[in-house]
Amino acid sequence: MLNWGNFVSQLFNGLVSGALLALISAGLTIVYGTLGVLNLAHGALFMLGGYAGFVAFQATGSFPIAVVVGALFVAIVGILIERVIVRYFYSRPEEDQILVTFGIGIVIVEIVRYFFGSLSQTVQAPTVVSPIINLGFVIYPEYRLVAFAIVVVALAALYLLLYRTRIGMVVRAGIEDSQMVDMLGINVQRIFMAVFGIGAMAAGFAGIINAPIISITPNVGDDILIQCFVVVVIGGVGSFAGAIVGGLIAGEIMSLTSMFNPQLSQVMLYAVMTLVLIARPQGLFGTR
Amino acid sequence: MTAPRRGLPYLAEIIVALVLIASPFVLPSIGGTPDTLSRILIWGLFGLGFDLIFGFTGLLSFGQSVFYGSGGFIASYLLVSHTIPNVFLALVIGLIGAALIGLVVGVLALRRSGIYFAMITVAFGEMFFFLENSVLYPFTGGENGLPNVPKPSLGWPGFQISFADPWAMYGLLAVIFLIGFIIARRIVASPFGHVLTAIRDNPMRARAVGHDIQRYKLTVFVIAAAYAGLAGGLEGTLQGYMSPEAFTFDTSGQLVMQTVIGGAGTLLGPLVGGALWLYLRNELQSALSLGAAWKLVLGLVFVILIMFLRRGIVGGVADLWHLVRPTRAPTAVAVSAAPAEAQVTAHRPPPHSEKIAIETRGLGKRYGGIVANENVDFVVHEGEIRGLIGPNGAGKSTFFKMLTGEIAPTTGQVFMAGEETTGLDVTAVCQRGVAKSYQINQLFSKLTVRRNLMISALSRARGSYKPDMLRNVDRLAELNADIDETMRLLNLTARADVPVSQLAYGEKRRLEIGLALGTDPKILLLDEPLAGMSPQERADTVQLIKHLAVGRTVVVVEHDMDALFGMADRVTVLAQGRVLTEGTPAEVQNSAAVQDAYLGGVHA
Amino acid sequence: MSDTENPRAGISRRAMLLGTAGAAAGAMLPLALPSWALADDPALGTFPAGQAGDSVFVGIDMPLTGTYAAAGADEQKGIELAIEHLNNGDDLIKAISTKTTKGVLGKKVVSGAADEAAKPDLAVQNATKFIQDNKASVLIGSVSSGTAVALNHFAQDQKVIYLPGISGSNDTTGKDCTRYSFRACFYAYMASAAVGPVLLDKLGKTRKAAYLTPDYTYGHTVFDSMTKFTEAGGWTTVTNQLFPLGATDYSAYALNIANSGADTLVVIGFGNDAVNSIKQAKQFGLLDKMTLVVPYMSPYLVQQVGQDLMAGVYAGLDFYWDIGDKFPLAKQFVDKFEAKYGYKPEWGAEAGYMQIALWADAVETAGTFYPPKVIAAYESGKKYADSLVGPVEWRAADHQLIRPVIVVQGKKASDMKSKDDYYSVVEIVPGDKLLPDPTAFGCNLGSPT
Question: Domain range spanning residue C153?
């Protein structure tokens, strides 16, 4: 009764879409863990990466350049946001931080809409990638596989950065106790700026990588942001491992639910989130 | 709204009523149609509830659309399906329905606070939007909404007043808003409302002085849901159509933005913000032909306001008003700590009591492999002043936290006044007559001295939770007399209406003790009360403590040995998580073991 | 005696007046009475205040921001072109509204537009403003059926005629039909009735169809209508993948469809949903093994999706610029539109133009702006010899225009003779066979007064 072929392909698909969600959520959770700021503009940064890459692609016709431009542009925007605005909110109540990033998110979306209009834009996948590949158990767009591989590499790079470098150690120390890091004479300001930039870059990078798969519109980041929330609640706020596991779980939930009842595939995410909140409010990897 | 109200009572209500009456005559000349004004009132009503949870309690919810939509669709469905013919009755049922949903959502969402809470409300908002659009669409009409919602009418057969006329509808909405406003004002002025401001300011301390903050939060959350549900129902009947937009994240987001722009914590902020938003949207679109860019402009306004004018428009106006008005609060510099009577009482009668006030048996706390406290047996008799000393890392703070219930012990038991309190949380322990003052000030920093003390007094007078939302706190004579007395004891009477941020450090420390004192505890725990004080302040505070100790049991943790030995009857020494020794101050002073512990083994 | 002249009129005066006088007038006023038997037509809606001066106002309620903004802008242009033609007495509009000289009943036509962003409550808000501030004589515009339905009921309530532009749901002339609204464009049932037989003819009778359906009433109505027609002809519906409105990632649904054994893919989404559905269907190889059908095609689809993906696709349209050789008025319209705006109109523009032209004709025929008489003119059963899509007539029972549906097939990029030559016209199906029974979708027209 269960279509095994379909089941396997959905399982695989959930992995792929989950990985992308994991990357975006990792950016969100790193920023929250280190700076204590929940960046509600994160979805807008995802969208911005797509558009920046789109502009670069229009200008150069090269997808790799588009990716680099997309990621770097958003990283710079992220650093600017931290320097000019967010920096002044560390000592203010949490709610103020949420509000200002919420406002920044809206401003970014509306600026993009002002310049690009509301119609969707397309970024072509690099032609070196063939459109479809037959993996045996599933026929899958090759570009999605490539994107999956890129995302996995990006996550690995992020992991190495956080857990194997000195900077990463300082960032993780900052997550634990930023006052102490400051007292040790380390320039916390620069670290915070870098972290915000890295978090933003993760979102922007994901945005341009994803652009050939879905068409981009100014509001494409809205849903992503909410899905990130769900991932982060399931995985545990501030936890890198939690973002990855949470992202994969979320991707699988959406894919597998669609097999039985496509209508409910998104709602099921929220149902699982509610369950996690009841049973283990700190999330799978979070600390109370 | 933290300054005490002087002048006409109900001044704000009267002004609002006058503005509402005048609007139909004044505003049409600048483009205010009855439809626009009605919509502003509905947003204002929606915002009254939101301001109660956000402006006053500090709960930032991005999911109020859940209740707005639920109340709206329940009322509209009942009317459209002719199940309930009377619009007012349907609105009330919608309100109740929204409140019940608020109860369920609140129980789940309030398990977390701060950012988590905000995220959860977003997700609930999305969930309800999906449910209403797909699964429930036979009732909600899906993306088409519910048309043909009737207008309200009043009367009896033979005489009917219908509100189909746009200005009549405005009048009805103005009356409903005014009633909603008056109720919200009463809630804010009530004891319940004051506890809410404490929760916003310092939830940890609010719990520690004996308030069950979860129940308060849930109650105000349900109230906000009720306001939202009524507003949603009113939108349905105003438009003659209930729109699925009510459930979108945009609606929740717009409410938040309008409230912040108008000014959170002012009750009128959402109304002003809504007026500005609707007005600007019309003007920016038509007059300036900005078209789609109106939202960009409003977004920029929002960000700038949060950065520079955090209290929003109404808050900013209020601040300006206070700046301009001559200040009444005396600017006297810090006054000495010594209370009047204490100067007379040089010493207190030594304790005679046989009754045990505090007892711990084998109390211990482990954090994984780290032992913070181990096997602590501790007995204090009623009326005693007990000193607690020990080198850094001895486990004093952890021990104190187990006494107050802030931390649950891993082993052992705690008894307060004969009753076991092991594992009870801090609110319950406080209600049993135990209170602690903190080493680092944990004051309600946005409130005045009087309001700070009121928070403690309220928990003593009303227990851990009481939904007394319609009483006026200024009318509780006995309560206010008690607060006056406490201030007199602490010599803070002259600074009663000064906000905490303007107090000198010594005054803050006294207030810190005062918060604990205000709960009228039988057992008073003082964590380094003299920290950071000048010698004179120390002497005064010691006198104060001795005075306070009359009729109470006091345990004091201190590093200032001279001061401590001068006031304690007995002293307990902790080292490495265990009790090292215990005795009179003289015994402890001369104990070699104690010297070893402090100095590391070198002694004569 | 309108309430806006005396804003502080008591609570019930207008209501009571409308209620009693209106009911009395309505009861005493069978519309066939000769004009001498009447005194002045009583005030109703924005009549006669909206026509007191020398101009009448058309309220254009359109999505100018959001996902439907492009279609909305195009539709607005069609409407504004029609208004310009009315004011100038252009031949094109006079070919449809034969009594038109200049303006409508001698009054100049002015218009204003407001953005509803596809949100029904904004649409109602804008419309309220048009009525209260501008005394609009007629309201027009929509891209999403949600707003059209909301305005249908609003118009009935306010007694001002409303003309939806693009509205695909059966409900707009079904259970949400009202006496005060008239729909000229095609919709789910008509599209399915036209496209279905073409598919049965061209693709055979034993196809297995997979549906990719947006989960809201428009989507459901198209699904219901399409399956009705295709299954009657012998097709099997193997799966219906319902996705939430506005979804961006269709991978899960595409995989389900890929594994379903279907050989035909029916994409029901509108706007961005259609664009994403089709692009991702291509990515998952669905278009290589299935024929794509878009029964109700939104404007600007091929421009966003690309000609390659649309090659060979069967689709239903309200209008296509290349039907000029069959309908000379269509050619005139396309030429005049392109001359003014610099591009060939999408079908929203045609829908808007038609609605204005037909409205002008109804008012001229009625000889007054008094709504019940204008409505009677609409319902009179008049046959229009020609229009932008050939002969049309209004069906009184549900206020739907009986008009053809254009079934097209996407051309291969190599076959395109110009940059706009997206489709070849397969069949122009006449409207009289395409309408459901008037009561099939629960239409119950309200009262004119």
Answer: 43-186+326-403
8 Å CB contact of C216 and B142: yes
**What's the predicted TM-score (pTM) here?**
0.86
- Shortest distance, CA A287 to any CA of chain C (angstroms): 32
Residue A107: which domain range? 4-279
For chain C of 449 residues, list the mean pLDDT of each consecutive stretch of 10: 39 42 44 49 88 93 84 94 94 92 93 88 89 93 90 92 94 92 95 93 92 87 92 93 83 87 93 88 88 93 88 94 91 95 94 96 94 94 92 94 95 90 93 89 86
Quick one: C415 and C274 in the same domain?
A: yes
How many whole angstroms separate alpha carbon B316 and alpha carbon B470?
A: 28
Query: Does residue A288 belong to any structural domain of this protein?
Result: no
| CATH number for position C207 | 3.40.50.2300
Question: Looking at the structure, do residues C374 and C290 belong to the same domain, yes or no?
Answer: no
**CB neighbours of A240 closer than 8 A, spacing ≥ 6?**
A26, A29, A30, A33, A158, A159, A162
Extract the residue ranges of chain B whose pLDDT is less than 50.
Answer: 1-6, 331-332, 339-346, 603-604
CATH of the domain at A200: 1.10.3470
CATH topology for B11-15+37-151+162-324 is: ABC transporter involved in vitamin B12 uptake, BtuC (1.10.3470)
Residues C306 and C199 occupy one common structural domain? yes
Tokens of C19: 């209620």
Query: Are residues C286 and C258 part of one domain?
Result: yes
What superfamily would CATH give domain B352-599? P-loop containing nucleotide triphosphate hydrolases (3.40.50.300)
Chains in contact with C via at least 3 Cβ–Cβ pairs below 8 Å: A, B
Does residue C152 share a domain with residue C258?
Answer: no
Q: Are residues C419 and C299 in the same domain?
A: yes
Q: What is the CA radius of gyration of chain C?
A: 22
Of C28, C314, C318, residue with least CA distance to C167: C318
CB pair distance less than 8 Å for A226 and B249: yes
> Of C12, C114, C150, which is closest to B145 when you measure between CB atoms?
C150
Domain with CATH 1.10.3470 in chain B: 11-15+37-151+162-324
User: How buried is C254 (Cβ within 10 angstroms: 0-12 exposed, 13-18 middle, 19+ buried)?
Assistant: buried
Q: Name chain A's partners: 3 or more CB pairs within 8 A.
A: B, C
- The reply to whether C449 falls in a domain is no
CA atoms lying within 13 Å on the CB side of residue B595: 9
Write down the ipTM of this complex. Answer: 0.87
Number of domains in chain C: 2
Distance separating alpha carbons of residues A167 and A185, to the nearest angstrom: 14
Cβ contacts (< 8 Å) between C247 and chain A: which residues?
266
Q: Does C73 touch chain B (CB under 8 A)?
A: no
Cβ neighbours of B124 in A, within 8 Å = 270
CA torsion through residues B193, B198, B204, B208, sign: negative
